[in-house]
Amino acid sequence: MTADSAPAEGPHPGEGSQKTPNPLGHGPVLLLANARLTDGRVVDVRISGDRIQAVGTAGGLGPLPATPGSPTSTTGARIDLGGYLLLPAPAEPHAHYDVAFSAALPTPPPETPADLIRRVTEGALTALGYGATAQRTHVRIGDVHGLRRLEAVLTARQALRGLAELQAVAMPRLLTGRAGADGRAQLRDALKLGAAAAGGCPELDPDPVGYVQVLLEAAQEADCPVDLHTTGADPAQLARLVSVLAPLRPRVTVGPVNALADGGAAVLAGAGLRVVCLPQNGGCVGIEGPSAPLRPFLVRELIEAGLALSAGAGGLRDLANPVGRADPLEAAYLLAAGGGLSPEAAYEAIANQARITLGLQPVRVDAGFPAELLAVRGDSLAGALAGGHSRLVIHSGRVVSRTSAVREFADTVALALPRQNTPG
Length: 424
Hints:
By secondary structure, the chain is α/β, with parallel strands linked by helices. Helix content is 27%, strand content 23%. The chain has an eight-stranded parallel sheet with strand order 9-10-11-12-13-14-15-16. Strands 1-7-2-3-4 form a five-stranded mixed sheet, with no helix packed on it. Strand 11 (165-172), helix 3 (181-193) and strand 12 (197-200) form a beta-alpha-beta unit.
């Protein structure tokens, strides 16, 4: 018995006579029928190109528009989302795909171009399958790594065009003194090569404030944001770092701040910085040493301070988190289950707040907004976070991924219970 099946899709016009560039199949117009929104409404959503064209009552939008000059054929598909919740697509604001899946590999893991590209691509596609249509990965540069890890990410980014948007943050280990000369040169080269942001962990440099000053200069020169790793454990140091970064706000993000000192949230909020937390285990490979779990009361402190909070996965089966998952809904579930946030606020942290962190436009299921959407099996947001396995992912107006979960039970139970999780 199927417990959680894929949404039904109508026939694809032109099948058999012409191949579509989208293997999951639809033209420039897509109709999502009978989708439930978080406010309880059941609607039809018409997508045209990369934007939501119209949202109306179920069955009220009429047939799909016809191809110009051919009034009897349509250019799109109709997908029945009955039993699904339609949401803005989540984003992944803090990944480390260059070391994804490395926990099961020899140490150090192989770093040929092919190995790196494969790991990055698999990591990005794993997150996409869970719904993250926009992603940011932090990449180590300099030292023995040179720029080869960044080059692998940029190659994967090109291969993923049309499926997901992938950004890279260049992370030199050292930037100050004679030891940091290579890092300074590599950082500027990385930003010229195509890194979307400058980052790293100031706490690993002998001069954390000097590290941030170099980073700021490079970011201003390249006109790009800064995305820093910090635990936030030293309040005096945090205040100095924040002061140096003031000229670039609000284009500054810090995370995972899993050991944030008392008063640290107010310091960050006063500087107008954005914060990314990592609910799975609190830390990542960007901060060396064991991770400290994210405390629920810390999440509440960040929110109460008025900080713009987003959440990410951090590690995907790497040495910092050997069981790490690339599922944004897992991060939202942990934020809500820990009592730090409501389900609505938790989802906002992995969706629109994460998109804003990446410099992208927020999404609403409304006309005119980007067609970046996630349909997940469930009748409510709480239900989706508790166990929404079947998913349909839409990026730039196209269906780019489907996951259908099927559950079967042996026919030994005589009770007249429903065999499908169909609302109502």
